[in-house]
Amino acid sequence: MKPKGLLFDVNRCQGCGACYDACKKEFNNPVTSADFLKDRLSADSYTVVEEYGDIYMRRLCMHCEYPTCVSVCPVSAFEKTPEGPVVYDADACMGCRYCMQACPHMIPRYEWDSLAPRVQKCVMCHHRVVRGEETACAEACPSGATLFGDLEDLKKEAKRRLEAEPDRYYQHIYGLEEAGGCNVLLLSPIPFHQFAYDTALPKEPLETFTMAALEKVPGIVAFSSVFLGGMYWLTKRKNKIAREEREQNKAENDDR
Fold first, then answer.
1. What's the distance, Cα to Cα, between the start and end of the chain in Å?
2. Verdict on whether the full-model pTM lies above 0.85
3. 4-33 burial code (b ≥16 CB/10 A, e <16)
4. Where does the chain have alpha helices with state H?
5. What is the pLDDT of residue 243?
6. CB of 123 within 8 A of CB of 85?
7. In angstroms, what is the C-alpha Rg of the chain?
């Protein structure tokens, strides 16, 4: 299977929130805001629609081609799949939150209110993609603002739109080169910094800088591996105990 991706075009977005609702439904996430336009990324909201005057921008994981979250995770909880999405294994997570610090797009969110907290983010409906289906958000979009398809085809389509209608588009495809490139591409009529997207990211993959730094501190890395291994065990132990306590309390309440 060729790598897949998403192309979001601000010019075609009606601000209806169909993508937001579809994502909530697909992952059985609760409603976190009475007005979807006021919602922000959270452990229960993997994508949001942001209002900027009379135009709308989506925010979700960019699914970097060289994801820094994968390179910094000490327990390999993140994985860049051949299909394109960057997925996450909650069972492997130790809760260190290095991914949150390393992500150039500031996407991962933490379950702060949970007794067994995990990181959450968009996984580009990987379970649907491997079945040959499009993402829930793309399927639900009534205006074609969000397109799903082969990444290379989406790159060509984005370039075609810029060339065909130069007056309608800011002449840049966000995600094409940022941090080594992404599987999510954005088109807009205005500069992307006006949507609070980081426009100063290097073109080189950020994992290159991460590995270069780690190579210079082998002693620290060796110590960190042992330390983090211990912390991983303690975290899993704490979560197991918390889960057992919740189950016991529930059983006691049910018996009353």
1. 55
2. no
3. bbbbbbbebbebbbbbbebbbebbeeeeee
4. 18-26, 68-72, 98-102, 126-129, 136-140, 151-164, 206-215, 218-255
5. 58
6. yes
7. 20
Residue with the two structure tokens 């959450």: 120
**pLDDT at residue 35 above 90?**
yes
Residue 167 pLDDT > 70, yes or no? yes
- Provide mean pLDDT across the span 41-65: 97
From residue 193, alpha-carbon distances to 34, 36, 60, 198 in Å are 27, 22, 16, 6
Q: How many other C-beta atoms lie within 10 A of the C-beta of residue 58?
A: 22
Token pair in block for residue 85: 């999405």
Question: How would DSSP label each residue in 44-107?
Answer: TBS-EEEEETTEEEEE----BSS-HHHHH-TT--EEE-TTS-EEE-TTT--S--HHHHH-TT--
Nearest CA among 123, 121, 184 for reference residue 149:
184
Asked if 129 and 85 count as a contact pair (C-beta separation under 8 A), the reply is yes
The better pLDDT of the pair 206, 158 is held by 158
